[in-house]
Design goal:
Layout lengths: L1 E3 L9 H12 L10 H21 L6 E4 L2 H10 L8 E5 L4 H12 L3 E5 L9 H7 L4 E5 L13 H11 L4 E5 L11 H4 L3 E5 L10 E5 L25 H17 L2 H17 L3 E2 L9 E5 L5 H10 L2 E3 L13 H5 L4 H5 L1 E5 L6 H18 L6
Parallel strand pairs: 1-11, 3-4, 3-5, 5-6, 6-7
Antiparallel strand pairs: 2-8, 7-8, 9-10, 10-12
The structure holds pyridoxal-5'-phosphate.
The site of pyridoxal-5'-phosphate (PLP) has 13 residues, from helix 3.
């Protein structure tokens, strides 16, 4: 099987899986208990928090573990409406976990503003400047698009946010960027960011939210007081320790040059058969969004799956019946959207796999176009 849907999730690293099963089977103690084995497991949680914090160039007490990035995004977004005078801004390119939360907030009567994208899939900075004002409470702009791999210039955006509205919180969804591009929150000017373990070879069901010390958020879950009282609930110990271990494994295994070679190879071959590339030149090497006009992407995905090649159709969480919000807002036509596929590369792929998958993909497109049938 050739797995080319790494933006949706990744295989868990072997070492991570064995550490996690070790914890679940042998070191299963509740970290809040006061006996020695619990103290030890608590130490492992705190070391993991430190590892993750270091990568973001923040302090450990600014990291709060959650059950997933969807939860982190929800927590961040909900911090944005304190009173009905303020407004929240998100981009049209957000993952549904930001977008749908923003829509729910809007439905409660709050002022939620959607900043458009440019044709490359990045935030349209000039239009954004016309939307933000002194009453903005929160701005949430995705770092790397899960649909196209487009990378937003967070440094530039945070500068605008702080100039126009110094009190506004700047949140970013780092899920597709974490471990892959610079995640220095201080340099980027980010006050909060969401991350998820399963995109870098950790387990599903564990995420985190970075909250800058100076920002005072209401607790997300009240209860036993875990996560310094902000997110109660017995910790997902194996998930947390596995998250930090996955980050280290991922950093060792990930080679930008190798992944870029995969993307460039496949993109160049697909261009030869008339496909249109939706990912811009400066996008993440991990994500290639392509439109094959005249083809129904679902049919192509199905036929590839029958040949053991797994690709994506854009966000796995997005309902296709609604079309594709992100590609739509980039100005793609209905035909381009219908024929859009998302190929995403990971550190378990090899160039041999990419070449084989490209041949299968092209043959399948040709079949669908009726050139080979009969
Ligand atoms: N944000 C982005 C950009 C994503 O790609 C995803 C997952 O597809 C999420 C958020 C949600 O992450 P999780 O599965 O941890 O809730």
């Amino acid at each position: 099987m050739i797995f080319l849907d790494n933006a949706s999730t990744m295989r868990v690293f072997k070492n991570v899986a064995s550490t996690m099963s070790d914890i679940n089977e042998q070191y299963f103690f509740n970290p809040s208990a006061l006996y020695l084995p619990s103290t030890k497991i608590n130490e492992r949680i705190e070391n993991s928090r430190k590892t993750i914090a270091e990568r973001l160039n923040v302090t450990a007490n600014e990291i709060f573990f959650t059950s997933c990035a969807t939860e982190s995004n929800t927590w961040a977004l909900n911090s944005g409406f304190k009173n009905k005078k303020g407004n929240i801004i998100i981009s049209a390119g957000e993952h549904s976990s930001v977008y749908e939360n923003a829509m729910a907030i809007k439905n409660k009567g709050f002022d939620v503003r959607i900043a458009p994208l440019d044709s490359c899939g990045r935030l349209d900075i000039e239009k954004f400047k016309t939307i933000i004002d002194i009453n903005t409470n929160l701005v949430s702009i995705i770092y790397c698009s899960n649909e196209t791999g487009a990378i937003n210039d967070l440094k530039q955006i945070s500068k605008i946010v702080k100039e126009v509205c110094p009190k506004a919180i700047f949140h970013s969804d780092f899920v597709q960027a974490f471990g892959k591009i610079s995640n220095n929150c201080e340099n980027l000017g980010v006050d909060m960011c969401s991350i998820s373990a399963h995109k870098i070879g950790g387990a599903k069901g564990i995420g985190a939210l970075y909250i800058k010390n100076s920002i005072k958020l209401a607790p997300l879950l009240y209860g036993g007081g875990q996560e310094r009282g902000f997110r109660s609930g017995t910790e997902n110990v194996s998930g947390i320790v596995g998250f930090a271990e996955a980050l280290k494994e991922f950093e060792n295994a990930y080679s930008v040059d190798k992944i870029a070679e995969y993307k460039n190879y496949m993109a160049s071959k697909l261009i030869e058969i008339g496909a249109q590339i939706n990912s811009n030149d400066c996008s993440s090497p991990c994500i290639l969004s392509v439109s094959v006009i005249g083809i129904k992407a679902e049919v192509l995905q199905h036929m590839l799956s029958d040949q053991d090649v797994l690709i994506g159709l854009g966000s796995a969480c997005a309902s296709r019946s609604k079309g594709n919000r992100v590609l739509n807002t980039m100005g793609l036509s209905q035909k381009q959207i219908e024929g859009s596929i998302r190929i995403s590369f990971g550190c378990f792929n090899s160039i041999e796999e990419i070449k084989k998958a490209t041949t299968i993909l092209i043959d399948t497109v040709e079949k669908l176009r009726g050139r080979i049938f009969g």
